[in-house]
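I'll show a typical protein example:
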Amino acid sequence: MQVMSARPVPGRPGRAGPPTPGRPVPAGELVLAGAHGGAGVTTLAVLLAPAWDMGTPRGSRRGFPRLRPGGRPVVLVTRNTVPASGWAVAAVNAITQTGVRIAVLAVVSDGLPEPAEAAYRFRLAESRVGGIVRVPFVPLLRVTDHPAHLPLPRAARRALAEIRALAHAAHPVPMKNP
């Protein structure tokens, strides 16, 4: 079985992987994985920092690689197309069968309306994830090397805030005793 290894988010040097067992998880960190290539995982990881970019499956014929989030909430990222929705459902099935809970399915728009068949497939997966968030298309993200420096439209900022809220509701950070 293949294991997805963490890649640090650009701009966060010195991050070498998920915490070892027994080491506390820093508050607010997310794990993002793509249901397919080109889903937008790296861009969302930068915009949702602190976040771990786990990338996408590497052509495994045995299915989706095992995901080890190290106690962090998992955000599965996909596009809003019909093929992407099929890969997203397959990824949800594969990840949840290993006992990992997906806090958020982030559906990233390609700028066109979401096809009815894709919307139907996302609804099928809805009961197995903490929530689904539609991330609107942001044209400027296509032409920048530094997405964190862009002024995002209100709808995009709202989607990012909703992803964080759902993720942290699924994995609340324990409070320390005073």
Remarks:
- The chain has a mean pLDDT of 83.
- The chain has four helices and five strands.
- Residues 154-170 form the longest helix (17 residues).
